[in-house]
Fold this protein.
Amino acid sequence: MGGEPRNNNHGGNGAAREDLVRELKHLREVVRDVGESFILRREGEIETILSHLAAVPVGTLRGEAPNWLREIHSLKVKQAKGRLKDLKEIDGLIEELAEQVVSAQDRRKGKGRGKRG
């Protein structure tokens, strides 16, 4: 009774193991592809921030740069561990800096038109 399933499992063990090995190798490729896509997208976003930074008015840049630098310097990651937590922190920092730099750039457009109360 209890021996039959055990024998059947051993007989199909080779095929099941091969299937699992094949799928795990595929999963490893998926992890690599997703990781590379994440890296490329974030590097592109950093390049976009850099291009927007060039259009931020000097006065605004002087006022905001210390805050932005503080945010960048406060990022604490353990690069060797490759933690999801670290990727989320990096992702959030890039998004936040992008919003702030674009906002600072847009302030230039509104300043020359006079203040509204």
About this structure: Residues 3-110 form one domain. Residues 6 and 112 are 81 Å apart (CA to CA).
